[in-house]
């Protein structure tokens, strides 16, 4: 059961760095101060912002705006990583950072975490294109993923008005040039689907944290999501999987995701529609609902009986 929000606890983070070939990747860790953790959560960010603004945001008067602090308070160790081209990881202007490259980043990041901590598998949460990156990683390294949570994901793109509009700039995404981002762009994420799902002070804090690290981001995920879908095969996701979809999300078409969900092979799969939420769920007014859904999935006990005679 999710415990009450108050009083808030905050936890110190630790910087880590690892290599993907010649590329340096930044990782951020927050862990339980003592005792054995319930598990290790790996958070995977989306197309337009680095990891710490997404998962370790702090907003005055809004307890546990940091998803990492929340999950540490609940007994989990937590990690996030800046994909190549974002935040404090290397930013070669020629690198487009597509979905497969994000999978490469997650393999490198988990190589490092496993060697450092002895962890053998992760509770993986990805949001938006981060969900596609997480799914790519899970397809390639299923033994490293104990449970997989995919939030605000797109599969084939069917029924996605946001991607329909974004595809009008396909020629721009195909150039490989980085696209600029600023506060106005961050606001557009919250205004395009259903204005009012997030408080203004939260959007401002989110925008400030994003632009402090990046004034431009790679175009590879936009290109993949406009021209190359599907980039993941649900039949290859052999672990318990949770599909999360905001009620008002303009990217994650519900029929598209239901078809994806039906194709998932593991019987311990879940589909959750999050009421009153648009696209960036962790920054919405109903963010505690997101934590509850995700934590419940991560903490669900293994079945005693599986129907196969065991």
Helix and strand layout, with pairings?
Blueprint: E1 14-20, E2 23-30, E3 40-44, H1 51-55, H2 67-73, E4 77-81, H3 99-117, E5 122-127, H4 129-140, E6 145-151, H5 161-166, H6 170-174, E7 179-180, H7 183-191, H8 200-211, E8 216-217, H9 220-227, E9 241-246, H10 254-263, E10 269-274, H11 287-299
Parallel strand pairs: 3-4, 3-5, 5-6, 6-9, 9-10
Antiparallel strand pairs: 1-2, 2-4, 7-8
Helix pairs in contact: 3-4, 7-8
Organism: Roseicyclus mahoneyensis
Domain Serine aminopeptidase S33: 36-282
Protein name: Alpha-beta hydrolase superfamily lysophospholipase
* Proportion in helices: 25-40%
Major sheet: arrangement of strands: 1-2-4-3-5-6-9-10
The class by helix and strand makeup works out as alpha/beta
Quickly name the level 1 CATH class. Alpha Beta
What is the CA-atom radius of gyration, in angstroms? 18 Å
End-to-end Cα distance, whole Å, is 28 Å
Organism: Roseicyclus mahoneyensis
GO molecular function: hydrolase activity
Pfam family, one: Hydrolase_4
Domain Serine aminopeptidase S33: 36-282
